[in-house]
Amino acid sequence: MTATGSSTLPGLLPDLEVIRKDFPILSRRLADDRPLVYLDSANTSQKPQCVIDAMVDHLERHNANVARAMHQLGAESSEAFEAARDKVAAFLNAPSRDEVIFTKNASEALNLVANTLAWARGPLEVAEGDRVVITQMEHHSNIVPWQLLTQRTGADLRWFGLTDDGQLDLSDIDELITERTKVVSLTWVSNMLGTINPVAEIARRAHEVGAIVVVDASQAAPQLPVDVQASGADVVVFTGHKVTGPTGIGVLWGKRELLDQLPPFLGGGEMIETVTMERSTYAGIPHKFEAGTPPIVEAVGLGAAVDYLGAIGLDNIHRHEQAITGYLLEGLATVPGVTVLGPLDPTLRGGAVSFEVDGVHPHDVSQLLDSFGIAVRAGHHCAKPAHKRFGVQSSTRASSYLYTTPAEVDAFVEGIIATQKYFKVA
Amino acid sequence: MTATGSSTLPGLLPDLEVIRKDFPILSRRLADDRPLVYLDSANTSQKPQCVIDAMVDHLERHNANVARAMHQLGAESSEAFEAARDKVAAFLNAPSRDEVIFTKNASEALNLVANTLAWARGPLEVAEGDRVVITQMEHHSNIVPWQLLTQRTGADLRWFGLTDDGQLDLSDIDELITERTKVVSLTWVSNMLGTINPVAEIARRAHEVGAIVVVDASQAAPQLPVDVQASGADVVVFTGHKVTGPTGIGVLWGKRELLDQLPPFLGGGEMIETVTMERSTYAGIPHKFEAGTPPIVEAVGLGAAVDYLGAIGLDNIHRHEQAITGYLLEGLATVPGVTVLGPLDPTLRGGAVSFEVDGVHPHDVSQLLDSFGIAVRAGHHCAKPAHKRFGVQSSTRASSYLYTTPAEVDAFVEGIIATQKYFKVA
Amino acid sequence: MSVDLDSLYQEIILDHYRNPHHAGLRDPFESEVHHVNPTCGDEITLRVHLDGEPGHETVSDVSYDAEGCSISQAAASVMADLVIGQQVDEALRKHQAFLELMQSRGTIEPDEEVLEDGIAFAGVSKFPARVKCALLGWMAFKDATSTILAGTASTTTPEENR
Amino acid sequence: MSVDLDSLYQEIILDHYRNPHHAGLRDPFESEVHHVNPTCGDEITLRVHLDGEPGHETVSDVSYDAEGCSISQAAASVMADLVIGQQVDEALRKHQAFLELMQSRGTIEPDEEVLEDGIAFAGVSKFPARVKCALLGWMAFKDATSTILAGTASTTTPEENR
Ligand SMILES: Cc1ncc(COP(=O)(O)O)c(C=O)c1O
Ligand SMILES: Cc1ncc(COP(=O)(O)O)c(C=O)c1O
């Protein structure tokens, strides 16, 4: 495939062919010698060579444990690990590097907040009678931790519903965000509907009642400039593997005042100040929340990843995603029997497009597309409640990224038409 | 350095020079063009090329999210990830692959057990008046989680003390393990003293009173054949980065009957059966305990690592470690002013040797050794209580592994002598 | 490797998908179960009605309400065809044969005597991600039947998560 | 890179290590603090005694009980020499100068007027793992002094964990 199909599309990354060369997997041939058309980036992104090389260089030349090792390799490894923290802090425009905590993924980061709020004593504690507010478009990872928290503490779990066009329904915000509300946790960008939420506005309302605002930026961080200070949030989380970094690492940024007051999450090496058999005292942030050997080579990979994205520019990536998403929505609009879930205006959304094909189950759609070498996701995308809201059990999702070309979108749309033919629904 | 100094040492791995070639970092030159003498393997092990290559191949050719992705890359990635679980199950002689849970490190695995026992309802619940028993030689990661558990629940934390030669003092076992005891958690091999504990015997006693036995195999798994069934334990944990695998992954093995009864730990994607806004039901093991995107490329690396160790043979590695440790203990015995902490008989211990040098602080010892290219660890090695037991605040630790040669031990012993000279204590 | 779509989507499978046999929930039944494929959300509610002496029961009826892909829907339909009217032993033997076929990765030649239309699913075993789909209804049947035989008839919701 | 051991272990440092000045805990004091280096376990208990008018206090005494490596012990000894008898402002200025020197990675030329024997630690700044050692006593002094000035004299146990 020559990937320059509609390279006149305004907003496309200018060096798209060069960027694609950075990703070794994009030259993979699949069954029947098909080229890979990877449209599952909201699930996990592909990795550029520079990320892989940074990890290999670390493993082959600098590997040692961090903090505790004082020899030359230990110093190199610690420096690489802490440099990754600096890079992530810069990526998020965090006021302090110490506010950046490495977790294993976004899910752990959200559980960290939910658990420490249950264990906190004093004003932060979430207890019986308190309220936690989420939304109906959350990923399961931003639902289940709060269900567990509210079940264990006797607090009350409430949520924003959705409008028919896949936006947050803010009409009952005054009933939801009240004096009782201790936490508001919401996604910045929906992984199913693509919706971009008005995070700063909701944060402002939540802060009026003194609630803590947690923002799940798992889908935002890959494709928008994320400025944690401008976001108004108290906590922002994202996951390494969706920002061209490796698995095994996630990020929790939190305001120092908040993190300082929260009790520790997991106990163990690295998070202590001093330990006796009877009792222990704990380190300051970020170490307080990083028990055990941290994801060292993963941090090195993530540091290289955010450097890579930063060099291309998040604004440019955002424009590219909007251009590709617009083109993909236009393409789908030409196919009878296809219904897109979520906003239809590409400027209101991220690059994940979920849709239904009349008469063909998403499994079967994705199976057919896969036979053409096109990778999409079928199922509930870890957003069962959002699917239920729209009366569907599952959907097919095509999600682009900075390496996606208009020609790939063309192949995808043709694939949908061929699928309809195969199942004799068109 | 020609690393065949005393290659006549009985028990050494026969292909030591070939094995060393598997580890790219071992050819690193440090400052002043010194060859690396890596004696910090109890802190983290070095990685063979096959582990690095397996990770690179996955990232460059097979990267996709697991379980949820149904396309070809998704199938390849899921297969690689689940194959790693099979490999780890075989490595541990686990009765079922489903009993193998991937965590982020050993510390998380221990916290998982401590937290779910607090949250459990019914006979497993650890509550006020119940007792948890640990030992004075535990790593902080097997102390702090139990302190947090007992503080939060009002249960009672007790521990086995140590004898002067660094063994567990089992003289008060009948007072410690009683009808009130719900959990006994102990390390198989001490990371500070090197002591190998009689795990099966303690497990037998603990089971007589119906307690759950948790074994921290973080130092055992790298160097002994670990058969979870023979161990008698209910839960065994270890960490990837110490068995020549990557950081970012740990393993929890637990008996199915136990794991099935425990409530979930972290909530999120992958660990659910079904989710509504009001409530969720959870997947069976192993997924119940694996919230969020798991450490995929790390599992691939860990799978390659346990294959690598298995091909060499854990029995052979154990013999090698004993031979090297014996040689190292002999070497230190020739140096006046050096005191080894822990058992002096190499057959009773693992390959981590902590010691004191009269008149020179461990920081200064390790700094001097580092200037000769020799990497050891100085400090409390995350075992403050064990240090306190022996009246020392910190120590220097030399820890070997399957790639360690007698010539490296010679260099280390000479380094100690040179250190004493530098600080004018000999 | 080649993606052998037609070996997956056999005409028999698509026929059963378009016109599922024995669909809809019916009385009487001794056990009703609800199974979910957690990966994709496919669901089935399934009822089993047994008749006959303890130790010699017959599967008098299997009825179900399923939502899912072509493979899962067709497999439920074929399963109902195969087990209704059979001795329980024989029905469970067919379950076992189907399970083995699905886990075979294309290496087993299915026995048409035992599996009838079920042999059309041989191709599914080469698509690991779809094996769960084909097994959803069968697992529900096994679960419901075992529950009755164990004398603990109730509504259960286990998961299929391999 | 070369491991410049002698730039780390200056003779002055080893002298202070072998014969620490002002060691031992003494009365009177307004604040006592206990600091730990969590990585290695090095510890210091340190007391500060100030005299004089609010706004014009003098450091009358600094006494300490420290357990640690040559660098941390020698740094505490040099620190006590430098600050005892100084105006608080001047003592804190020396703290600041020492901190900057330590964080300089060998790029700052230390001012002997201000730091006296402390200039011997310039080499430490090239060993990132040892910077914490050199700062342990200084951080304890800063903490204890600030506590007195804030009028909240008490025994605190913070950590040094950068
Ligand atoms: C005995 C022991 N237990 C637990 C751990 C913790 O392992 P990790 O830091 O990988 O969680 C270690 C290593 O640091 C150890 O040596
Ligand atoms: C919006 C959103 N939140 C949270 C997550 C969870 O991320 P992880 O699985 O890496 O923990 C995801 C991705 O799966 C996501 O899309």
Automatic annotation (TrEMBL), chains C, D:
<dbReference type="GO" id="GO:0051536">
    <property type="term" value="F:iron-sulfur cluster binding"/>
</dbReference>
<feature type="domain" description="NIF system FeS cluster assembly NifU N-terminal">
    <location>
        <begin position="9"/>
        <end position="133"/>
    </location>
</feature>
<dbReference type="GO" id="GO:0005506">
    <property type="term" value="F:iron ion binding"/>
</dbReference>
<dbReference type="Pfam" id="PF01592">
    <property type="entry name" value="NifU_N"/>
</dbReference>
<dbReference type="GO" id="GO:0016226">
    <property type="term" value="P:iron-sulfur cluster assembly"/>
</dbReference>
<protein>
    <submittedName>
        <fullName>Nitrogen fixation NifU-like protein</fullName>
    </submittedName>
</protein>
<dbReference type="InterPro" id="IPR002871">
    <property type="entry name" value="NIF_FeS_clus_asmbl_NifU_N"/>
</dbReference>
